[in-house]
Design goal:
By secondary structure, this protein is of the alpha+beta class. It contains 26 helices and 28 strands. The protein has an eight-stranded mixed beta sheet, with no helix packed on it. A hairpin with a 4-residue loop joins β6 and β7.
Length: about 850
């Protein structure tokens, strides 16, 4: 049953917000004065966790009811048409990282806090009464007061204009926007600012716990990104400012609040002199993702949450397109292939996965659709597919039409397809509906039939059990043979293979560029033809070959054993893309061996065979003037060499640690994690782990924190493991925002797995209370399923999680992850002997 939208009862036009936050007493008091149109009586306004003191309509007190289960205030206005509704309220200031909340940090040994906001999806109603729906766009005037100390500043969507005699900071009225994009913050902050060539103020803000130079990288990327988007979208940035704020506690990665974008510190701040290239790329893509939203999401907003993908998928594609424009030498589209494409293909092959676009009626279900691998990764693959069909000129023309017709309003996916169709002869909507409204993706079988004809068939691909419902897709084939642009039928006959092969002069390949969302299974004739010419393939072709074979093996359509001999063929590649694909595939072989068994010893020998020549070529120390490719290849090879227990690598890493023990933070960031992991694993004890945890608490460098966490959670020491689990609920050591990563690190460690698994089962109620309302909460289930692969763990997983299957945020995740573990258990049972035999042969 559809839940009634509050927008149907009242259309807000303008909010006057007066908000007073008291950090000491942990209280919020305020008034929300809303001018708008009363459409129906009674009017419904959103609130959550509030005490409503009074409601006035046009200056007169009126009757109201607070309905907690609907997060509503029901107001009998007694009028229709234009009205002013004034609501006086109070609310608690909570530590949930939702609504208005404190972020904690330490400076010179003193505990401090800054206040920030997070209103997406439905948390603005915890800060002020409002019609908290994307379609209910209005303008906002904010007056903000707090228990102000000397040296503190306040930020909001728009610039500050004055401080009145009562101590309220007033900000310029916003443009017309949705409530979930309102934002403000205050506290002791440092900043760096610049202006775009059109005069837009660009700022980066952070606590004073950070070195000033950590703000420089983000300031440069943000300025150039705003300028890039203005040109690409052919639509001016409509606000006077774009401020980027790093919050010490932040549940998501970042949030596109219009004019005041908020980030986790790790995704905004970095040391420009010592951060890995991979981390720089990641931070750049997060910033450009959020700034893409300033148009696509903020200027034009989805009408309702069922079109959430429209915001996220588009921003996810644009983050790569813009970084490629800003830093072409980074080859950022390669990162798209190793992250977004891989994530989407893995997740989307499990039966029961959500489609990109799905119906949402109850606001309680909104957070459950934030499946990153689908809404972000698969969605962006769809748009990359559209871009490759259209070309950039038509894409830009279509987008300009879209912004011109929908700015400051709301839109649906069909509005976007209609706009893009004005720039092409293709029916974009028809093509896209087959991808957006049904889950999963096809495997295209390419084979030479008995009559000598080359034929292609499509059917849905599953990893594990899956019910084939006869789904069909409009597949952009991107073939290097004479073939249709779009495959819309179940089967097509391309004609006589020998003739086609002779005309082409090269082996058949489909999905060239790996931009379409399908995989290919070639028959033996076609695959042998590709492999005979494998050195002629470019890096993306090689990545795609390994990617498709790996997925086919996961889906039990071929054997993993058949892939093992191929790995050695790619081991000497000078492409980080190919090396990534190589070790992604090699990592899958670990599930077939018991820790510390003879089979694992053989697998370690294979890892040594794959990595030793590259480690010898590159060495442990980063050399001046090295190519970006070599810089990016080295971490894969060092990690492989350490897994292989290569004596020279263990010794080299230990020596580097010993020489730099007094200043580990200054170690080159590209090798630092492996030096630290090696020390903890091979030379460490509880004392070293304790020392590194203290270092983790001391440093404000987000990248260094990640390296320390990776090292600490890899310990073999049982006393250290017990101490780590003891810190899981101590926010002074492990912030709730980082807890899932700590948990996953220990769970993936053979020695720590039992302790981590016992903790989550024993303290689930604490975890639910601490982060349970957060859209990231289901990740604890996802990462558990990502690690587990034995019948015993499957049984325990089901016993613990299946009783929680009716919790809306967790339901789909639990059902899917049971299938994920089941498919691994069945695969291992069927393939274990053949895979381990293939590994033994490869090292002979």
């Amino acid at each position: 049953m559809a839940v009634k939208r509050f927008y149907k009862t009242f259309h807000p036009e303008h909010y006057d917000l007066r908000i007073n936050v008291n950090r000491k007493n942990k209280t919020i008091n305020g008034t929300s004065t809303i001018t708008g149109d009363v459409i129906e009586n009674p009017v419904f306004i959103n609130q959550k966790f509030m005490t409503i003191d009074s409601v006035k309509v046009d200056g007169k007190n009126v009757d109201f009811d607070v309905i907690e289960k609907d997060e509503a205030i029901k107001i009998k206005t007694g009028v229709t048409g234009k009205a002013v509704i004034e609501i006086a309220y109070s609310a608690p200031l909570t530590d949930t990282m939702m609504g208005i909340y404190p972020s904690y940090y330490e400076l010179e040994g003193k505990k401090k806090q800054i206040i920030g906001t997070q209103f997406e999806t439905t948390f603005a109603r915890q800060a002020f009464p409002c019609v908290d729906e994307p379609e209910a766009k209005a303008t906002f005037s904010l007056a903000l007061k707090w228990d102000e100390q000397d040296g503190e500043v306040a930020l909001a969507n728009m610039p500050e204009v004055e401080v009145d005699k009562d101590g309220y900071h007033h900000f310029e009225e916003t443009v017309r926007m949705s409530s979930y994009l309102v934002a403000f913050a205050f506290g002791e902050l440092q900043s760096k600012t610049t202006h775009t060539k059109d005069g837009v103020l660009i700022g980066v803000y952070a606590t004073k716990a950070h070195k000033p130079k950590e703000l420089d990288f983000a300031l440069d990327i943000a300025k150039r990104a705003i300028e890039f988007y203005e040109e690409f979208y052919q639509t001016k940035y409509p606000l006077p400012q774009s401020l980027q704020l790093a919050l010490p506690d932040f549940s998501a990665g970042a949030m596109e609040n219009w004019g005041l974008v908020t980030y986790r510190e790790a995704y905004l701040l970095l040391d420009p002199d010592n951060t890995s290239l991979e981390m720089k790329k990641l931070v750049a893509t997060v910033i450009t993702h959020e700034l893409a939203h300033q148009w696509f999401g903020d200027l034009v907003t989805m009408k309702w949450w069922d079109n959430l993908w429209l915001n996220e998928s588009f921003a996810n594609m644009m983050e790569y397109l813009s970084v490629d424009g800003l830093e072409p030498d980074w080859h950022i589209w390669e990162m798209f292939q190793t992250s977004e494409a891989a994530s989407a293909l893995n997740r989307d092959a499990t039966d029961g996965v959500q489609p990109i676009q799905m119906e949402i009626n109850d606001p309680a279900d909104i957070d459950s659709v934030f499946d990153g691998a689908i809404v972000y990764a698969k969605g962006s693959r769809m748009l990359v597919m559209v871009r490759s069909l259209l070309g950039d000129d038509a894409l830009r023309k279509g987008l300009k039409y879209y912004f011109d017709h929908h700015k400051f309003g709301n839109a649906t996916g069909d509005d976007l397809w209609d706009a893009l169709s004005t720039a092409t002869d293709l029916d974009i909507g028809k093509i896209m509906h087959s991808w957006l409204k049904q889950p999963g993706y096809p495997v295209v079988n390419a084979f030479v039939a008995e009559d000598g004809h080359l034929k292609l068939t499509q059917k849905q691909f599953f990893i594990g059990e899956g019910e084939d419902k006869g789904r069909q897709w409009q597949i952009p084939l991107n073939a290097n043979f004479d073939a249709p642009k779009i495959m819309s039928d179940k089967e097509i006959d391309l004609g006589n293979y020998k003739v086609l092969r002779e005309e082409a002069g090269h082996p058949l390949r489909l999905n060239v560029g790996n931009n379409s969302h399908f995989i290919v299974e070639y028959d033996k004739t076609l695959l042998d033809d590709i492999l005979s010419d494998v050195n002629e393939l470019d890096p993306i072709d090689k990545l795609q070959l390994l990617q498709d074979l790996r997925l086919l093996a996961e889906g039990k359509q071929i054997s993993y054993a058949s892939i093992v001999p191929l790995l050695v063929k790619f081991a000497d590649s000078k492409s980080s893309l190919v090396i990534n694909a190589l070790y992604t595939t090699a990592a899958k072989l670990r599930q077939f061996v018991e820790p510390e068994s003879n089979e694992e010893k053989n697998l370690k020998k294979l890892y040594d065979l794959l990595s030793k020549d590259q480690v010898a070529r590159l060495g442990w120390e980063v050399k001046p003037g090295e190519s970006d490719e070599d810089v990016q290849i080295r971490p894969y090879e060092l990690s492989a060499s350490l897994y292989a227990e290569n004596a020279d690598s263990i010794k080299a890493a230990h020596q580097i640690f010993t020489e730099n023990e007094d200043n580990l933070e200054a170690l080159n960031a590209d090798i630092r994690p492996y030096v630290l992991i090696n020390e903890v694993k091979n030379f460490g004890n509880a004392e070293l782990v304790d020392k590194l945890i203290k270092e983790y608490q001391r440093t404000a460098d987000p990248s260094y924190k990640v390296d320390l966490r990776s090292a600490v959670t890899s310990t073999k020491d049982l006393a250290a493991i017990k101490a780590i689990v003891g810190d899981f609920e101590n926010a002074d050591v492990v912030k709730p925002q980082d807890l899932c990563d700590w948990y996953r690190g220990l769970l993936a460690n053979h020695y720590g797995q039992q302790a981590a698994w016992d903790w989550i089962r024993e303290d689930w109620d604490w975890l639910d209370k601490t982060v349970g309302g957060d859209m990231e909460f289901a990740k604890f289930i996802t990462v558990t399923a990502g690690v587990f692969h034995t019948p015993e763990r499957l049984k325990e997983f089901k016993e613990f999680f299946e009783p929680k299957i009716n919790v809306p945020l967790l339901s789909r995740e639990i059902k899917m992850d049971v299938k994920v573990i089941e498919s691994k258990v069945n695969l291992i049972e069927a393939e274990k002997d053949a895979v381990n035999d293939a590994v033994a042969k490869a090292i002979d």
